[in-house]
Input
Amino acid sequence: MIQDQSGFIYYLQQKNGMCVIMEGNPKDPYLKKHKIIFNIKTRNCLAFSGDGDKFQLMDDNHIVYLLQRFRNQGQRELNIYQESTLKEIQQLEYKPELFDSIIL
Output
């Protein structure tokens, strides 16, 4: 579970072979107000981190996704902005970008 600077919480749920990122406001007592902001088909989620606007998620195939929301469009859902695999990162000639250095 992660809490951002605005007080929103973000947590994972595993349902029917899907990994779901939920967003909720802890000041609102109703769980039905929590929203699904991203889902991906995977058996397990191996890692999850973020700050409210950008998140990193690793699926069971060791693919790391950078998820980002576009606030200028007024939407709460996350979109896949970039993805990397551990095999790419482990190559000797690999030159990490900003996102890749975060996941290293």
About this structure: Helices lie at 86-89, 98-103. Residues 6 and 52 are 8 Å apart (CA to CA).
